[in-house]
Design brief:
- With about 50 residues, the protein is mainly beta.
- Helix content is about 10%, strand content about 55%.
- It has a three-stranded antiparallel beta sheet with strand order 1-2-3, with no helix packed on it.
- Strand 2 (about 15-25) and strand 3 form a beta hairpin.
- It is elongated and about 40 Å long.
- The chain starts with a strand and ends with a helix.
Length: about 50
């Protein structure tokens, strides 16, 4: 993972976080961005997964 970005989002009573990470492709070696919106306590686990 080369880069990570985290932004806080708030919708009504739920607090959500949008996390973006760069993932390197095994085939081509190119980087792609993977985005996900989740609860703030799940971000660390999601970023540490490969």
């Amino acid at each position: 993972m080369a880069k990570k970005s985290i932004a806080s989002l708030q919708t009504g009573s739920n607090r959500l976080t949008k996390a973006i990470k760069m993932v390197k492709s095994e085939k081509t070696g190119a980087y792609t961005f993977v985005e996900s919106i989740m609860a703030p306590d799940q971000v660390s686990g999601w970023l540490s997964k490969k």
